[in-house]
Amino acid sequence: MDIHAYVVDHVDAPFRWEELTVEEPGPGEAVVRIMATGLCHTDLNTQAGNMPLPLPGVLGHEGAGIVTQIGAGVENVAVGDHVVIGWPFCGKCRNCIRGEHRYCLHTGELLTGGHRFEGPHAGESAYTRKDDSSVSGHFFGQSSFADYSLVTASQLVVVDESVPLELVGPLACGITTGAGAVFNTANPGPGESMVVYGVGAVGLGAIMAARNSAAATIIAVDLHDSRLELAQRYGATHTINSGKEDSLERIREITGGAADYAIECTGVIAVLEEAIEAIGMLGTCILIGGAPTDARFSADHMRTLFGKRIVGTLGGSRTSQEMIPALLSLWKAGRFPFDELVKTYPMAEIEQAIRDTHSGEVIKAVLTLD
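Above: the chain's sequence. Below: its structure in token form.
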């Protein structure tokens, strides 16, 4: 079938809207008409060459839309269903069997291999240009910077038709990553303290989740007062502008020594290393932010030896099928107002959305199609 999609030809090349051909859905696959897709820093990092998707390729990984076709053997969705395109997973490896789809042993290939993972055409991209040259697709199993997306049906999460599709795409990745880091990785106990470094979409998702947890002290750290004001609105008990005061000293003052949890959303190595210092004995530092490829960090051995834990999280852990409905339930109850972070742009205005994202004008840009 013929579709239109944004193609990135090479590292740092612009997004170019062009006509492509995508193959019909095979066994276990479905086609989704994209109604909206979030713009994430991961897309921009991939455009910049910091993730290994072969280029030229089609990016986008926070898609939501309507199922238009299904392949043989698909039973979990039907044509006409409203869906969020969650993370892909094999469903067969030890981690998938344990219910940890984010840590599927084939995650790297599924997210950035650029090709189908299973079926008669495994290892091949279903996307071609009009000159028959191949284009990488299947980015995070979806390549949703397009009007239609070929996906593995198992990654789809059906949502009620009353839920606006222009809102729910970001629950596929960014906002759920922050919330899941709190609910699944940290799971703070009564009276515990948490500091969130970087309060963009991911960090604010973490703040909202922390407000729904047993954490008593929720500290937001950022360079922008406007974002710190939002953090306070959504649940932070304290805010620190790290450009104006010593954030580590202030965290120690607020917590009476050290935080129980630190969630690092920036990917900036110096900030990450501070986050490790901000936690005390038996404290946990959770890494979310994407640093450049091959980045390294250091930690003081003796202080870490005293029970500190440094852990990473992908997509907030657990599964899209669990996390997306759970967050929507909290949203409907008025306890997780992620919709207030979203600003929509027509798909044609992707460059404006990127500029506003870089400038901090918008927290979560979402591209929409009619």
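The two ends are 19 Å apart (CA to CA).
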